Every structure is written in structure tokens, then in C-alpha cells.
Amino acid sequence: MNLQPDLPIPPDSSTEASMSGENVLNGQMSETRRQILIALKQRGKMTADELAQHLDISAVAVRRQLANLERDRLVEHEQVKRPIGRPGYVYHLSEPARLLFPSSYHHLAAQMLRTIKGMFGQEAVDMIFQERRCEMERIYSARIDGNSLRERLARFAELRTEEGYMATWEEKEDGSFVLHQHHCPIIWVAEYCGPACREEAVMISELLGADVVRHSHQTNGDATCSYEIRPRTA
Known about the structure:
- By secondary structure, the chain is of the alpha+beta class.
- The protein has nine helices and six strands.
- A hairpin with a 7-residue loop joins strand 1 (75-80) and strand 2.
- The chain is elongated.
């Protein structure tokens, strides 16, 4: 089996798969675990007995690993009817498990932005991120409630964390707040395209009804993207 080491995996902190640091192709997991995931990737749905036969290991060992993989949300099972006897189970990869295999979405996104800029100019790229910001504002607005800035910020941080930004916030003695985003799921695009980050600051300001100033930026090598947030002045 031809396995290529050290291929890039786009991180997604919202899943246990990516948080574990495992990578199917670079040997950062047990051999049996890796072989099961690769077999399910290549062959699709399989029973425990089929996996055991394919990998030439005992069915007991396969079932033990499948139980662990289900616990880690990397494998799922479904019940299937048999002509005779009790129903059986087939196993397949979960959506988070797909993140353990190489992908190049970030390269594709950056390439498309370069192409758009080359064909239509920087203004077209700016318009794309402005439209994205407006769409995100519509989505967030439907899920953010609260009368106070503190309540809205707390809810916004929860939603950002769900999307993988690992957001936290703190309140300062002067009544201002600081929002910290410890991870950037779109870091590859942000490093290439400044409007992505500029529109994010605008979005936060509009959603929270506050004045927002960014103080640190992961694309500059900082540990977080942090924003100072103050009640909007008249």
C-alpha cells in the first residue's frame, strides 16, 4: 500500500478527529487503527468480518478497534438485514474522519481568489468578502439574542467556537471587553487575502452594536486574533 507521509491536513478544531492530531497517512496512530480507516476509505461500507478478512487479523481485534473508533467519532455503523438470522452491522467513516485524509481546499480557495483578482481586479475580491460578511451577519443575527453587550458577546463567542474559532472573551475593569479567537479555520485564505480579516472586524461590530478594534492577528504571527470591544459611541 503506497502511503505518502507528511501531507497537509486542514485543521478543524470542532472535531475530536483533528484535535487528536492523528493523521492516517503519516503514522501518528496505531497500525491496526490506520489500516481499518484506510480500508473503509477505499472500500466503503464493510462488516467487521470483511475487515478482518481484508486485513488478515482476528475479528475480535477488529471489533475492539471499531468500538474505539466509534467512541472517537471516526467510524459509524448501521444495521442491515440478512436473509437468515439476526440483522448485521456495516461500518463506514464518519464525516470527522474525512479530515484525517489529505485535502487541498485551502490551495483551491487561494487559487480561485488569485484568478478572480487577475480577471476582474481587487474590487471583485473585496465584493466577494463583503457579500460573505453580509451572509454571515444574517446567519448570526438569527441566533444571537440578549439585551446587553455582554450577553451578545457571550453568545457570539459560543457560535464562533462551534465553527472552530476556539473563541473566549473577558471583561475589563473599564467596562470594555476583549474577544480572543485562538484558532483561525480560514488562515490560509486570510494570509493571502486581507479583506477576509477586515470584513470580520466589520461583522463583529455590526452584530454586537459596538466599536471594535483588532489588537492581535494570527496572520502576523500572534497567538490569537483579539478584538477590543467597547459600547458604541454616539
